[in-house]
């Protein structure tokens, strides 16, 4: 899945071809940015990744490389030390010297410690606080050393706290992070700094001339003058602006519009890998959706082949949220095969009778549901219509109730739906408990299973690969049998970019394609 993309050395050392400074790149986003705070946003942090940096970041092969740290901590290099009883660990980060914030102040270990304190603060409303509760304390013996003392073993440390971004202590300490102007104009250490934020419209970022990274030939980075992010939730409008030249990079081109994009002069379409999958989830507050017979019937009523064909043949069928590129993917995970006759029998046996209107019901509980996807996302809206038709064939009514922007985010988190279809994209070392663990940050379904929680706990609290593999097999089996979610397809990214943009390398993780923009340049 990750093979065949262009190569670069690491995020800290980049090749030099015939780069030249200058130029503006305008990016079309398919969603409205809710906040520029990387810990608060409910969407992928595309614009944020060009502005704010973490200690580490995943590269094109989903391998972690150093950014504000000088190396990735491991047991072998002494960066990770496990306690004698095997129950806790300590991670030491050596920080990169000479790094400054966009206001010119030096980046130090005090910023790392403050980031942990700010994220774990119960008053701070974050999209996820993953990795913060597991930290017992942080020592800062000098300005370029941060020693993180964990109260447990956390193999996924690199995919949570400190990787998404570091907060500037000197600007934020003592402020309310929920209402701070930082949420619109964050100050980071990245190659670009925010100069303008118009909610629902655009973010303008400009080159930070004090950026720490250099190209192999010694050039100061970044090369581009500006990165502008335009928020265009309607994908038809997005493609129109790509054709007109108002937008020259789209990293989420709808599958259904690939042929249109291929015909645009000076635009090339790149197929990039993704650690991503599409899924249908259930709100367990609805009594019938808490009924396993109904969930199994819905699973048996959906034909993945039709979904794939409707989306240009780009996705691939999947039966587990663990995409096959990961070594802990279990090919023996059970699955519910497409069988509408079996689906109908499941519902018959469970007492859901077809009414005069063709919709099944049992007592007062009618199998009629609101069905949400993110409005304006063409691929998802198309898949939604396919699923609606397939469910109708087995006596279940689903009515589109789509939302965009903050309204979509709030509904997703708070369970403002009966059925929801969408996509998740993970880090290079995923934490799955956030989706289906009891109280998980992305668990808006009100789903809870102590046995599943225990499997997640085992998976996420050991450095032993064999134990993690066994735990992964266990949680994949539970998810397949309990069906709080139906994993449907895995994805590729169709990236439409101007041919003038060079040094662009797709990134398959949830750190987005903008995690390393410094070497991009316009020919």
Automatic annotation (TrEMBL):
Originating species: Devosia insulae DS-56
Limits of the Solute-binding protein family domain: 63-444
A GO term, aspect molecular function: peptide transmembrane transporter activity
Keywords: Signal, Transport
SUPFAM superfamilies documented for this protein: Periplasmic binding protein-like II
InterPro entries: Peptide/Ni-bd, SBP_5, SBP_5_dom
Compartment annotation: Periplasm
GO CC terms, sorted: ATP-binding cassette (ABC) transporter complex; outer membrane-bounded periplasmic space
First-listed, main subcellular location of the protein, grouped into a coarse class: periplasm
Name of this chain's protein: ABC transporter substrate-binding protein
